[in-house]
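Hey, weird one. I pasted the Phosphoglycerate mutase sequence into the form twice and got a warning about non-standard characters only the second time. First submission, copied straight from the form history:
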Amino acid sequence: MNSKITLYVARHGKTLMNTLDRVQGWCDSPLTDEGIDVARYLGHGLNDVVFRTAYCSDLRRTKQTVEVILEAKGQKDIPVYEFSGLREACFGGFEADFNHTMWNSAALYLHYTSVDAMYKDILAKKINYRDVLNAIQKIDKLGMAENFTQVEQRTQASLKEIAEKEIRKGDGNILVISHGMSILAMLLSLGGDKLFTKPLDNAAVCKVTYQNGEFTVESMADMSYVEKGKLMIGVEV
């Protein structure tokens, strides 16, 4: 029988820059208390899943998230590997600016009168994040922002490398902690676009299987593990 691995790809916990509503791509900041809590809830919610290995980007917020999750699960001794290819999209001159500045600029470039109108069309699949990230890249005055294809190619290459490395060890569960836009760029074209109906919140999980050289996205933006973790440790939901 051909081996099959299951990858639990999750977004990092809430950070200081998330709280300040600042653009956070290659810029980095630590998890807040709330971010640590949601990572801990996720760890408890994944209690029934035994991970063989964990991966994260080279940014502090994902490393901190994976540490909290594994501590909560009682699996802090499993190997953890960093992949720079899993890091968030670079937003160039918008880095550390207010989120509304970047998103409003992208909305205007795409001929929307508001970010809400743009986001409504994203969820309705009239436009997609490829359009939005490409718009940000085009209006970045520093010329440093990545376009969607750049983020898609490096994140999918990292996911493929991880999957090929792990499949040689046989069946298993793998934890991957990355970032919001990076996860979308990674998974939408692998089938995640059909399942993407809500925002990718902090600690949201996307479940992906890999077998016979093919990825199958089974779920997107799943917060049920966090909710389960809250119930397990008696946090009111």
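That's the output from the first submission. The warning seems to come from a hidden character in my clipboard, not from the data itself. The CA atoms of residues 80 and 94 lie 31 Å apart.
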